[in-house]
Amino acid sequence: MNKWFGKKGGVKGKIAANEPKVHSDFDVKKFFKMNFLPILFLIYSVVIIVIVLLLLTGQSGDTTGTTSGNSDSVKFLGTWTEEGGAVFTFYSNKSLYTFETITNNGISNDVSIWGTWEILSNKKILIDMAGFPITYDYVFSNNNKKITITFEQMSFVLTK
Q1: Residue in 128, 63, 57 with CA at minimum distance from that of residue 136
Q2: Are residues 94 and 116 in contact, defined by beta-carbon separation less than 8 angstroms?
Q3: Taking the domains of the chain in order of start, what are their residue ranges?
Q4: Is a pLDDT exceeding 80 seen at residue 146?
Q5: Which fold does the domain 71-159 belong to in CATH?
Q6: What is the mean pLDDT of the chain?
Q7: DSSP E strand stretches across the chain
Q8: CA of 139: how far to CAs of 35, 41, 99, 147, in Å?
Q9: What is the pLDDT of residue 67?
């Protein structure tokens, strides 16, 4: 004979109809009242960290990612230098950073501008710098290490 079952195999003792079958000191309402704010804070913290990381990787200089579109988009990725000293960095998220030191009358000023870029059809690229979009023609040469970009009569050459 075991302590849980009587002689006929039934449960010892009587269970009242309104009495819970399992007795516990655990109060669910009290638990959520006490632990809700730390849990909510943890969830918000994780969400904010993920958002910050996503934003940082978009501007971190990672130019090795792939882009949707044609293979010319991938060829543009990275940092290019113009013959006059300007630096252009094309990012996989379609952002573009330019930097140049301009000297006038012996005074040097560093100029940097963020913009966007997009490959169009027929070897054309749309570059929008500070709200001034211009569509250029482009040609890759020297095993994709050189780009000649042309707008009307003006052209400039970028090298990797």
Answers
A1: 128
A2: yes
A3: 25-58, 71-159
A4: yes
A5: Lipocalin (2.40.128)
A6: 75
A7: 78-82, 87-90, 95-104, 107-120, 124-129, 132-141, 146-151, 154-159
A8: 62, 53, 22, 6
A9: 41
